[in-house]
Amino acid sequence: MKAALVFLEELAQEGLFESITHVRVSLYGSLALTGIGHGTDRALLAGLSGRSPESIDPAELESLVSSIKTHQRIKLLDRREIAFDVPKDLVWHRNQNLPRHPNGMKFEAFTDKGDLIRDKNFYSIGGGFIVDDRAEDHVPAGESRPLPFPFRSGEDLLQLGKKSNLKIWQMVLENEKTLRSEQEIKDGVQRIWGVMKSCIERGFVHPGTLPGGMKVKRRAPDLVKALKANGEQDPLSVLDWVNAAAISVNEENAAFGRVVTAPTNGAAGIIPAVMFYVERFLPGS
After folding, report:
1. What is the pTM of this model?
2. For the chain, which has fewer Cβ within 10 Å, the N-terminal or C-terminal residue?
3. 284 contacts: CB under 8 Å, gap ≥ 6
4. Which of 248, 165, 232 is nearest to 200 (CA)?
5. Burial level of 134, CB count in 10 A (0-12/13-18/19+)?
6. pLDDT tens for residues 247-276?
7. 3-state secondary structure of 173
8. Which residues sit opposite 91 in a β-bridge?
9. How far apart are the first and last CA of the chain?
10. Dist CA 12 CA 79 (whole Å)
11. Alpha carbon distances (Å) from 104 to 9, 42, 92, 99, 193
12. What is the pLDDT of residues 50-98, one digit of tens each?
């Protein structure tokens, strides 16, 4: 989604956007092999339509993708409508790789005469980060600034803590402050928790089966109903609530909902579940 958005936004910044009448996206290697199951096609269509992972309404995704496939039209950046035939314009090269990384994709934009306006390769390198062939990281500016507490291993971090007499969170906060103000950091953390919390809440109330051929039934809504019916007299029900929160995120992830990679979602929802526990069962913490 990010790569598609960056590609079109760069063309818009260069004054080339209005010349586009045809777009083709080619996926390679691992990205092509796992793309359908991971919703890569949906993400690309959303990105071309001007949506970002942070802002798209997960409830909108299904209708947006369905409309593009049905009408064979797409509204680039939500501004310029062109023809788009998904089977022809999303190409899966399962037995080919781009040179830099197994998760590669190529974007091509053409004029009405079929002339190539621009093509560009992107690579999905994990954690929501993308790079292009120029080794340019498409992440917020300033990520390369020197840090007061640089570390590459747990051992490095422990030694820094002993030397500085600071806790891990204090050192990480100082590192983050080289990129943004402390208030921006706190606001950002609250926003991330808000996304995690809404993900848990969506999973708690969405019954049914998960996408895919295995017809796996969602478990979180039934767990929550049972916990509410039984009350919380059993001290171990706290663990059941934590499990329900983790499963909820797990299932939202499998259903193409919005999740937070912290640092990776891992389909497990562990960090959101721990935060859920802290907020619900440790009042005043």
Report:
1. 0.80
2. C
3. none
4. 248
5. exposed
6. 999 999 888 888 887 666 555 789 999 999
7. helix
8. 26
9. 37
10. 11
11. 19, 16, 11, 8, 31
12. 999 988 988 899 899 999 999 999 999 999 999 999 999 999 999 999 9
